[in-house]
Design a protein that fits this description.
- There is one protein chain.
- By secondary structure, this protein is mainly β.
- It folds into two domains: 2-173, Protein Transport Mog1p, Chain A (3-Layer(aba) Sandwich), CATH 3.40.1000; 180-301, no CATH class.
- The chain has helices spanning 2-12, 89-96, 158-166, 175-187, and strands spanning 27-28, 34-35, 40-43, 48-51, 57-63, 66-73, 77-85, 100-103, 106-110, 115-117, 120-126, 130-138, 142-151, 170-171, 190-199, 204-216, 221-236, 241-262, 265-272, 277-283, 294-295, 298-299, 302-305.
- The protein has a 19-stranded antiparallel sheet that branches. A four-stranded mixed sheet has the order 1-3-4-14, with no helix packed on it.
- A hairpin with a 2-residue loop joins strand 18 and strand 19 (265-272).
């Protein structure tokens, strides 16, 4: 039955690509804004526009460091809207091949390989209680994605809801695209060092040191080195002695890297030569307040010219 559902999706999903120099008149997506059914919602920074389907309402919320628009219908269907600039269809397909984690307690497993149809990429995921369908439609330099989550009883409606959303999407040139390209050029030839230390124990001294470094070369290649060192020393007051434990592990990786915009954040995408994809959120690129850029919400330990890149 699972394969039958995915096969039906391939027959039913369509994308009506509308390209224009400017977006149709609509309500601009903004934090806290409410949207009724039939409202055209514009995400101008990415040159995107869509219409809230019948029986749905929506709002824009702040979560995981970014503004996200969420639509809902009663208690059975929720839609998360994603806005992208400079995301490629093949990268979207790789991304959708992984489990989708909506929250710490809600994780969807891939049900069948993602499908790429010209300017449309989609994949079907499932969990014990819910089903989901993610569709991503591509314009010139931007893309809009909908992750549609339903109860098991409403899962047969996923393709029709997707068609309703896709049929009212409009694209215009993305103002964010130029910023992404400048960021990509600026990061080329640099290294990013991420450092963290976690103390352990209360009767001794030590902890775990985690160092991760990405060298982002201008030719689109990257080299990654990660090292975890754990050390712990405890004193025995009765034997007048101490015990020290050390452990070191590391990993090396090479591949290709890209940058794209996701909602109001920027993402560093790495794809290893083994086909493993990883995404990290970049922020404070302008180094406000004298601080270094942030990677996944934490300030980098170091940031500068790479001595690894050619």
């Amino acid at each position: 039955m699972k394969h039958f559902k995915v096969w039906m999706l391939g027959l039913l999903l369509t994308s009506s690509l509308v390209l224009a120099q400017s977006l149709p008149s609509g309500t601009e997506a903004s934090l806290g804004q409410q949207y009724a059914a039939g409202t055209r919602v514009n995400i101008s920074k990415h040159g995107l526009s869509f219409v809230v389907p019948n029986a749905f309402n929506g709002t824009t919320v702040f979560t995981a460091g970014s503004q996200v628009t969420v639509l809902s219908r009663a208690q059975d269907v929720t839609v998360v809207v994603w806005a992208f600039s400079n995301l490629e269809p093949q990268d979207a397909a790789l991304w959708l091949a992984y489990p989708i984690e909506i929250s710490e307690n809600l994780k969807f497993q891939l049900q069948a390989p993602p499908v790429v149809q010209s300017k449309l990429v989609y994949a079907y995921h499932t969990s014990p209680q819910l089903d989901s369908l993610t569709v991503i439609s591509f314009g010139l330099n931007s893309a809009i994605g909908f992750t549609i989550i339903s109860t098991k009883s409403a899962s047969q409606e996923l393709p029709s809801i997707a068609n309703s959303l896709l049929g009212n999407v409009s694209f215009a040139p993305s103002p964010t695209s130029d910023t992404v390209q400048r960021l990509r050029q600026g990061l080329g030839g640099l290294y990013l060092l991420h450092y963290s230390f976690k103390a352990i124990g209360s009767s001794g001294f030590g902890g775990t040191e985690n160092k991760r470094q990405w060298d982002l070369c201008s030719n689109g290649q990257y080299a990654y080195f990660g090292r975890v060192e754990s050390s712990y020393t405890t004193n025995n007051p009765y034997a007048n002695s101490s015990l020290s434990v050390f452990n070191t592990s590391g990993a090396n990786e090479v591949g290709t890297w890209r940058v794209f915009a996701l909602n109001d954040a920027y993402a560093l995408l790495t794809i290893s030569n083994q086909g493993v994809l990883d995404t990290h959120i970049l922020s404070n690129i302008e180094q406000a307040g004298g601080k270094l850029p942030y990677l996944d919400g934490k300030e980098l330990g170091a940031f500068g010219k790479s001595n690894v890149c050619p």
